[in-house]
Amino acid sequence: MGGRDGSDQVVVALVALLILAACAPASTSTERSAAAPRASTQTPSFPTVAVSPASSSAAPTRPVTLAGLIAPGATIEFVAAGLTLAEGPLWLPDGRLIVSDVPGDVVMVIDAAGRMGDFRRPSHHANGHALGADRSVVQAEQGDATTPGRITRLARAGPDAVLADGFQGRRFNSPNDLAVKSDGTIWFTDPDYGLAGPSAIGFNGVYRLDPRTGAVTLLTRALGEPNGIAFSPDEKTLYVSDSEGAGVVEGAGVVTAFPVNGDGTIGPGKPFGRGCDGIGVDEMGDVWASSCGREIVVTDPRGLEIGSIEFSGDTTNLAWGAQDGKTLFVTTTGGSVWRLRLTVGETP
Question: CA-CA distance, 299 to 86, in Å (whole number)?
Answer without folding.
Answer: 24
